[in-house]
């Protein structure tokens, strides 16, 4: 089961690594979108969240304080869902549906990251470089 858990962690972090590298390599475009959502200091926020995503994802992937890495992802996901994907304020039905999908995706990923925190703390995640930071 250790290999299955590792494969699951690899698949789980793919979206965060891709998004994090996107934040870092396409920051002007992403900052423009963040600014349209009224995010304060959008350029700095995009770069900071890019680093947060990459670091958190690598920690989960490698199992280096994976519980902390998963917590970093939760810290990103919940505010992002609320701030960037506020479907409740959309008036266009298609835009509302797209934002709701993104909101629910972020909340679902946050739930999965919380499960990972518990699994890392319980030592049931297998094949890690360090033990959990919390626990």
Could you explain how this protein is built, in words?
The protein has one domain. It is built from five helices and no strands. Helix 2 (27-36) crosses helix 3, helix 3 (42-62) packs antiparallel against helix 4 and helix 4 (66-84) runs antiparallel to helix 5 (93-122). With 135 residues, the protein is mainly alpha-helical. The longest helix is centred in the last third of the chain and has 30 residues, at 93-122.
Distinctive features:
single chain; 135 residues; mainly alpha
What shape does the CA trace take?
Answer: globular
Q: Domains counted in the coordinates: how many?
A: 1
User: In whole angstroms, how far apart are the ends?
Assistant: 22 Å
Radius of gyration (Å): 16 Å
Largest sheet: number of strands, sense, barrel closure: none
| Tally of alpha and pi helices | 5
Instruction: Report the sheet-strand fraction.
Output: under 5%
Tell how many strands the DSSP assignment holds.
Answer: 0
Instruction: Give the SSE order as H and E letters.
Output: HHHHH
Overall pLDDT confidence: 96
Indicate the structural class.
Answer: mainly alpha
Helix content: over 70%
- Low-pLDDT segments, ≥5 res: none
């Amino acid at each position: 089961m250790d290999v299955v858990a590792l494969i699951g962690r690899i698949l789980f972090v793919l979206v965060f690594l891709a998004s994090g590298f996107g934040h870092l390599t396409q920051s002007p475009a992403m900052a423009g979108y963040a600014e349209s959502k009224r995010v304060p200091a959008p350029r700095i926020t995009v770069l900071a969240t890019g680093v947060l995503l990459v670091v958190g994802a690598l920690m989960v992937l490698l199992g280096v304080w994976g519980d902390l890495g998963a917590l970093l992802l939760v810290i990103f996901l919940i505010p992002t869902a609320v701030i960037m994907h506020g479907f409740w304020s959309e008036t266009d039905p298609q835009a509302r549906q797209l934002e709701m999908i993104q909101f629910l995706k972020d909340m679902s990923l946050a739930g999965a990251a919380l499960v990972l925190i518990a699994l890392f703390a319980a030592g049931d995640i297998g094949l890690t470089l360090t033990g959990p930071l919390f626990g």
